[in-house]
User: Fold these one by one.
Assistant:
Number 1:
Amino acid sequence: MWCSGWEEKANEHLPHLLGLGPFEHLSFPREAQAEHWKLATVERAAAGRPMAWIDDDFNDACHAWARAREEPTLLVATEPHTGLTDELAQQLRAWAESLRPGATAGD
């Protein structure tokens, strides 16, 4: 699922660039009292399942939410000028592999 401020436009560009998708996308209605503009939507979409969230705009509320979740959660912070690097992609792959049934640390 694309969790991008590009919303529905993510499928116009990201699948071609990344060799992924197309996927569903999230929309982010502005909530005046929100601690982070994406958090409520991400929380609803991720309910009850593991998730990795890649973003260049995490704040303390995002980190607190991720720590409090019972489901495996990985926040991957990117720099706006470099985006998703090979190293971060490897971190994501390793994390996803660790969730596979029967995986052990170091697999």
Note: The radius of gyration is 14 Å.
Number 2:
Amino acid sequence: MANVPHPLARPATHKQVLIVEDEPDIVEILTSYLVDEGYRVITAHDGQEGLQKARVLHPHLIILDFMLPKKHGLTFCKELKEEAALAQIPVLLLTGTGRADTVGAALHLGINAYLPKPFERHTLLTIVHRLIGDASSSST
């Protein structure tokens, strides 16, 4: 019998997004949105695990929570951008606070975009497509 792929299976060539987020509900929402768009999703639940996975997997994009256990989002970003092999990975920072000092510090460390929580699907996907360079992807 021929090996027939599942109708919802995505090709292995789709771009990888690493989600570094400790809130399970947000991880679930982000994963659902991204998988529906054809992205391959990897998750990490704290900053330390996220940085380890980034080093091994070199994702096309990192969606990073600001407040994380084990390694704060700003520390994560600083360490990521200091590593030559990882410095070019775009980072989208999710933050529960839109405070100017928080956003300013993150921008200074090299994040590419930020999105306050709660966020809308369309807004998130528009930013993701822009950062990854997927103009052909839909964001409906």
Note: The chain has one domain: 16-132.
